[in-house]
Design brief:
single chain; alpha+beta; two-stranded antiparallel ribbon; 8 strands; about 50% helix; elongated; Phage baseplate protein; Baseplate_phage_T4-like
């Protein structure tokens, strides 16, 4: 885990303000994985990245995650809590980056998609075909080489199933029963967006603290950020009492 002190986190937040969601996810992943070079981050399999971001979220904001969804049937506002620790343990990280499929004369090797693959495929006219072409390592039928565009739909479905089984953490899905109508709502949990929302709220609160303490005591931002959250809160209470 990288330096998650207040100053470093504020720098990450500031850098992400002008970024699209994909850029913010990359910044957060870099904070979670300082052991990886910046050029290597986009190539990390999606399930591994989601696990890294969940670990960062737990380190910064604890084990409890508040989630809100609208029921897809009756529109009721559903609010519930997730245990981030239990949730993390339920996500298996990929054991390998290349999946092999051998059946019915087919011999296929397929690399697990990463963030860079999704970003590039999204710009294509046919994102699904583009993703398949990017991640297909090799394909042959009865010994004859085949290209991504020549794979039958049934084979493409089997590849998708094999990838999902090999990297279940790439698609974090919640199934929530509505207390009003008992309908189950299925929704994806985008941990990068969830974490960014929390970081944005924390950063704005922290900068307000800096403003108040700097006004009251004349301290610099680095001096204020060097205080522990508890001491910072105590000084803010003293300011309110004056």
């Amino acid at each position: 885990m990288a330096d998650t002190g207040a100053a470093a986190l504020l720098a990450t937040w500031e850098a992400g303000l002008t970024e699209a969601p994909a850029g913010r996810a990359l910044l957060l992943h870099g904070t979670a994985r300082p052991d990886l070079d910046a050029t290597a981050l986009p190539a990390v399999p999606l399930g591994e990245r989601e696990g890294d971001l969940l670990a960062l979220r737990r380190a910064l904001f604890g084990e409890r995650m508040q989630v809100r969804l609208d029921c897809r049937a009756c529109g009721a506002d559903m609010e519930f809590e997730l245990d981030a620790g239990e949730f993390a343990r339920s996500l298996d990280r990929p054991a390998r980056q290349v999946v092999r499929l051998t059946e019915d004369g087919w011999d296929i090797a397929f690399r697990l998609p990463a963030a860079a693959d999704l970003t590039a495929a999204a710009r294509a006219a046919d994102p699904r075909t583009a993703l398949l072409a990017r991640c297909l390592v090799s394909a042959a039928h009865d010994g004859a080489p085949r290209t991504a565009g020549s794979l039958p739909p049934a084979v493409q479905r089997r590849i998708a199933e094999a990838v999902e089984a090999a990297d279940p953490g790439a698609d974090i899905t919640l199934n929530v029963g509505c207390p009003e109508c008992a309908t189950t709502t299925r929704a994806e949990l985008d941990i990068a967006s969830y974490l960014w929302t929390e970081l944005d709220s924390w950063a704005r609160d922290t900068l307000l603290d800096v403003h108040l303490l700097a006004t009251a005591y004349g301290w610099s931002e680095p001096e204020i950020l060097a205080l522990s959250p508890l001491r910072r809160r105590y000084y803010l209470e003293l300011c309110a009492d004056v």
